[in-house]
Write a structure and sequence with these properties.
heterotrimer; A mainly alpha (about 190); B alpha/beta (about 300); C alpha/beta (about 675); A: about 190 residues; mainly alpha; globular; C: alpha/beta
């Protein structure tokens, strides 16, 4: 049996309300002005690893293909270096668009499971809720244990280097007003997304 | 005496300790006072913004409010990621009424003042503008003995807010290095991203991005790379063995404050050279343990 | 409702406009109601008032019923006010005794409730009936047009307009700031899409300008002041001296050869800094006038006073060179002005990621035009900056400084075509591999798409993707020593690194940096982009809001040579229309000052957007120039004493109209 795949996009898959809502978010106002010039992908250091380049993500947004955009690996490979936004001739704040997509992908559970970045983000998030400050050591350790324990073997080399040079701090500092911080973070807010 | 609120950030207390040590030395020698923000919390960096934007702004706003409570009007944040997050919070919370409302409500719960104008600055810009390369040069006491430096600015310090330096072809760190007596190379990758936390999550991609930087710096004749962000420094420093087709590199990755501190006569042990992973041999030559202090002619 | 001369006798006509009005407004009911109002002698409704019979009916009624006022309720005055005024005049009345009511755009076209619409029409017409009783008889003012024309700018636009007018027998002053006419076109090598040699088609026109008895050519000249109004402009032109008398110079150029500078040392502006010239120079071989220029900034005689002056010797008995010559000021009176001041290219340094000025082998398109030109600094050899190496690969980047929020938002219209042209010329001269990087390929003109096909078949790489960066960053040996372009090839869907020897930046067109000063000089306006503003983008592209001043060429917006020539011809025709008519009539909707009431407070003077109000120091009163006044009403509204009034919009007319609307039947 020859494996042949068929690719056809039907209009019923498109979600135009999603495009409109995205446009309302802070920083995402100019998303529809994209002229598809490709400068963003040309300058992005990670674009060669992405399944959809940043330019194609914007086109997916314009056309309303929500699932492809939110389940791409693009948004997780984005390192927020702002090169795209700095170069864009239409002044589109692509990094803000990427953040918005990241948040939506986590909320809707559409992020690719093999990419551990949301796990790291989650550990970071929990760490702050626990102590107010983060210990790099504990965040990375928890992240590795929860995503792929084999990573710890790969990281052992760097870990030993850090220990040798005195940069590995096992200290976990907690801020004084952790209660205040926790209450602030849970403050009631209007539904935005 | 110029005074600033000081936001160290989580990294400077762990992997970035050489940065804090050398930064405090440099500011002390140049007569700039840093007042650490009482009970500061983590800025959230890129991770928080990926999960919950409102909480991310609230997190940073708390730090700005604490600084205001201390009576400060300017915050110095040495880590580029912290600098950007704080700067962005200050910008977005003042420009977007919806964000401002949420942030002020949250701050009220912790009995903190509402968000107000607060200038967030990076030490590169503070030294360049408030001290000036002329003054730095005048205060140097040690002659530079090292080789050519590649100044690596990274990304979040320069974009999307352009007060710190030009986003394309920045020069301020280079000028500070010249003031310290060093020569720098001209190279095209000054502002190309190091990948941030990708070295931890998708190792091959992250390491490759840093390999590109080191390879180009070496190709252009640099013998060390100078950085201004703890994550950039770590990324460039910690993975050199895996690069260059297995042959590895051994290039010292320094903080610009270490080079400045050395030139300004700080105590060698207070500059954190012992924390460097790569390039130890070169560092011993450039920053010898017993050195002559030469007065600047 | 009586005027000074006795009772008013008003004829009112309600038009159905087919079904446009009639289907919503009950025109018969309106005319029956209006007939009941005092002063109304005739009240009719009719299918099409603007038609021949409609107008004739109006004229007949005036005679038969001895009417002295007319009201027409129909469409917008923009369409037919002049029609009904003409009919009124034909009927023997002063045309300003007619009032027009818009019951179409203001009523039937915007409402659906027929009863309400009919009542509204009644209210509006009743108001007009009240107003028209107060209207005064007015006459159109006549302004004579001086037949001489001033053309500012000696590029192809100015040259073409000058020749067209001069050939029609009109006297033209052609003023050009540079030492020679020819503008940007003189710098080009070949023009798209026919690959005509630019100089070959331009220089005959330039010579014709020189030779034409009706054209007075002033080069190195600038307009320093302009005042007046249509048909009567007083212009002051400062003619900077070139220290060589144009009338005595024979154009032999011996002085240049004889200059003490044996080697040319000064950066040559005409060659975009790629070549060198001496302090005494001719911009290019076919320059008109064929008279050299002495640049006082670099000439030793001006800097130290101690030069041997071998140029004077070489000139010999002609005595054309004279270091004591001074700038001359000319004052002329013209009737019309054509502004054809052209454009400048975007400074490539504004796009730092393209490396212009950082990497030597990044060139602008204008620099390349000079390189490929046989009379350029390298005699047509395309060399890299080292002056001896031919490039084996070239990257041409479109849209540099165009379609960009960070520099200029607009598309500069000509760059896609000239980039393809340069691709062709570079390939022809060097055989190099050429890459064009574009966002959209814009080839709309005649023969343009065919030109693109020609280029595609010549094997030029046309890659759809805006280059993100030009750097010397090399990732493998084939990239060493080259300029590497990192770009997303959006058609292939992949990011590419393309190393080239030479990068050409297709810079966009923008207004001259002194466009704002120039526009103030000529009392015209600019659009937000900074180009001079045309009166109407579609129907009046060469007129400005200042009567008698016209635009031609790229100063109005980026365009190519065929469109520029067409526009220059259009501007010449507009000027000629005014000159041949001999006069213009001005609509008498102008403001005027009741001198007894004017307190001399000067509130009105700075408010006038047309600079039409002057303050008479001798009388201590304001005075309105009715020719400059456009009837905007700003001064009338602002005047604290009410001494400024406006014809056609007098206070009593307006109050009557208001009362007419408000009184219910």
């Amino acid at each position: 049996m020859i494996q042949i795949s068929r690719t056809m996009k039907y209009q019923q898959e498109a979600v135009p309300e999603w495009s409109e809502q995205l446009r309302e978010l802070p920083g995402c106002e100019r998303v529809f002005s994209c002229i598809q010039c490709g400068t963003c992908s040309g300058t992005c250091p990670l674009s060669i690893y992405m399944d959809y380049t940043p330019r194609r993500i914007i086109q997916l947004i314009r056309e309303g293909f929500k699932t492809e955009a939110l389940s791409s690996n693009t948004i997780w490979l984005c390192a927020s270096c702002y090169s795209c936004a700095a170069h864009c001739p239409q002044d589109i704040h692509l990094t803000d668009v990427m953040y918005a997509l990241k948040q939506q992908a986590i909320k809707e559970g559409l992020y690719p499971k093999h990419l551990p970045i949301p796990v790291l983000a989650r550990e970071f998030y929990e760490g702050v809720k626990r102590n107010g400050r983060n210990s790099e050591f504990w965040v990375v350790l928890r992240f590795a244990l929860k995503s792929n324990p084999l990573l710890l073997l790969k990281m052992a080399g760097s870990g030993l280097d850090l220990m040798r040079t005195g940069r590995l701090s096992l200290k976990s500092e907690r801020i004084k007003d952790i209660e205040g911080l926790r209450r602030e973070l849970e403050a009631p807010r209007e539904v935005a997304r | 005496m110029s005074e600033y609120a000081y936001f160290p950030g989580c990294s400077l207390r762990a992997t970035g300790m050489a940065y804090e040590k050398s930064l405090l030395e440099v500011f002390r020698i140049l007569g700039l006072k840093l007042n650490e923000i009482e009970d500061w919390n983590c800025c959230g960096a890129t991770s928080y913004m990926s999960i919950d934007e409102d909480a991310a702004f609230v997190l940073s706003a708390r730090n700005l409010a604490l600084a205001a409570k201390q009576g400060a009007s300017e915050v110095v944040a040495p880590c580029s990621a912290c600098y950007l997050v704080l700067r962005k919070t200050e910008d977005y919370a003042t420009r977007y009424p919806t964000i401002r409302k949420r942030v002020d409500e949250a701050l009220q719960i912790a009995e903190l003042p509402p968000i107000d104008w607060m200038k967030v600055r990076h030490p590169v810009e503070v030294l360049f503008n408030d001290v000036g390369v002329g003054m730095v040069k005048a205060k140097t006491v040690r002659k530079w003995q090292g080789g050519k430096l590649a100044c690596y600015y990274g990304c979040q310090m320069l974009r999307p807010y352009y007060e710190t330096d030009r986003p394309q072809d920045p020069i301020r760190m280079d000028e500070l290095m010249h003031a310290a007596g060093a020569t720098t190379i001209q190279w095209a990758l000054k502002t190309k991203c190091c990948g941030g936390s990708l070295t931890g999550t998708i190792r091959e991609v992250g390491v490759r991005l840093n390999e590109i930087l080191i390879a180009e710096a070496v190709r252009k004749g640099a013998e060390a790379i100078v950085t201004c962000c703890p994550l950039c420094q770590f990324n460039l420093d910690a993975y050199q063995r895996e690069m260059n087709g297995g042959r590895g590199y051994d290039i010292p990755i320094l903080y610009f404050t270490q080079v400045l501190g050395w030139a300004l006569g700080a105590d060698r042990d207070k500059l954190g050279f012992q924390h460097s992973i790569a390039g130890g041999k070169v560092l011993k030559q450039w920053f010898p343990a017993r050195e002559e202090v030469m007065a600047n002619a | 409702m009586h005027d000074q001369n006795g009772s008013v006798r008003i004829g009112v006509y309600i038009c159905h406009c087919g079904s446009n009005i009639g289907s919503v407004v009950d025109c018969k009911a309106v005319s029956e109601y209006i007939a009941t109002l005092p002063g109304v002698v005739v009240s009719r409704d009719y299918k099409y008032m603007c038609s021949e019979p409609g107008q004739e009916m109006l004229e007949k009624d005036i005679a038969e019923h001895n009417l002295n006022r007319i009201v027409v309720a129909s469409c917008s005055p923009h369409l037919h006010e002049h029609t009904f005024r003409a009919a009124t005049a034909k009927g023997g009345l002063n045309q300003y005794f007619m009032a027009m009511v818009n019951i179409r755009e203001h009523d039937s076209w915007v409402h659906t409730d027929k009863r309400a619409a009919t009542r509204k029409a009644q209210d509006l017409v009743r108001a007009a009936v009240a107003r028209v009783a107060k209207q005064k008889p007015l006459d159109k003012a006549r302004v004579d047009i001086d037949p001489k024309v001033l053309i500012v700018g000696g590029g192809i636009a100015g040259i073409h307009a000058a020749l067209t007018l001069a050939n029609a027998g009109k006297k033209v002053y052609l003023v050009e700031r540079a030492p020679t006419i020819g503008g940007h076109m003189a710098k080009f090598d070949k023009t798209f899409p026919t690959l005509d040699c630019a100089a070959c088609i331009l220089t005959p026109k330039m010579s014709a300008v020189r030779a034409h008895p009706n054209i007075t050519l002033w080069t190195m000249a600038e307009v320093t002041s302009l005042s007046g109004y249509v048909g009567n402009y007083d212009v002051q032109v400062t003619r900077h001296t070139r220290y060589i008398d144009e009338d005595l110079c024979a154009g032999c150029l011996e002085c240049i050869a004889a200059c003490v500078y044996k080697q040319a040392k000064v950066d040559d502006e005409f060659n975009e800094g790629l070549g060198k010239r001496k302090p005494i120079y001719l911009p290019f071989p076919q320059a008109i006038p064929q008279v050299p220029v002495i640049d006082r900034e670099t000439c030793i005689e001006f800097k130290s006073g101690k030069c041997k002056k071998t140029c004077l010797e070489a000139c010999g008995e002609r005595h054309a060179i004279n270091f004591k010559l001074e700038d001359k000021v000319e004052n002329v009176r013209v009737g019309t002005v054509i502004v054809a001041t052209g454009f400048q290219t975007v400074d490539a340094k504004r796009l730092p990621y393209y490396g212009y000025g950082v990497y030597p082998n990044v060139f602008t398109s204008l620099e390349v035009e000079r390189l490929v030109n046989a009379s350029g600094p390298t005699a047509g050899e395309v060399y890299l900056r080292d002056g001896k190496t031919h490039p084996k690969s070239v990257g041409i980047i479109h849209c540099v400084g165009s379609r960009d929020e960070k520099t200029n938002k607009w598309c500069s219209r000509v760059c896609c075509m000239y980039s393809l042209k340069l691709a062709h010329l570079l390939k022809e001269h060097t055989g190099a591999e050429i890459f064009n990087f574009y966002i959209d390929m814009r080839t709309p003109g005649k023969g343009f798409e065919e030109f693109y096909q020609r280029l595609l078949n010549e094997g030029v790489h046309c890659i759809r993707g805006r280059v993100a960066e030009v750097t010397d960053w090399a990732l493998n040996p084939s990239e060493e020593g080259k300029l590497v372009l990192r770009v997303e090839d959006t058609l292939l869907g992949v990011v590419r690194r393309i190393p080239v020897d030479m990068v050409v930046l297709s810079v966009g067109l923008e207004p001259h940096k002194d466009a704002q000063e120039v526009r103030r000089l000529f009392n015209i306006t600019c659009s937000t982009e900074g180009f001079f503003l045309e009166r109407h983008p579609k129907l009046a592209p060469v007129n400005t809001f200042t009567d008698g001043i016209f635009l031609a060429g790229c100063c109005q917006g980026p365009k190519d040579i065929p469109d520029t020539v067409a526009q220059a011809g259009a501007a010449a025709a507009e000027a000629m229309a005014l000159i041949d008519a001999g006069y213009v009539e001005q609509e008498p909707n102008t403001a005027y000052v009741i001198e007894e009431d004017c307190s001399g407070c000067k509130t009105c003077v700075p408010l006038c957007p047309y600079s039409a109000i002057a303050f008479r120091e001798d009388k201590r009163k304001a005075e309105v120039n009715p020719v400059l006044c456009k009837g905007c009403g700003t001064c009338v509204a602002a005047c604290p004493s009410g001494s400024l009034q406006q014809h056609l919009f007098e206070d009593d007319e307006i109050f009557a109209e208001i009362e007419g609307v408000l009184v219910h039947a």
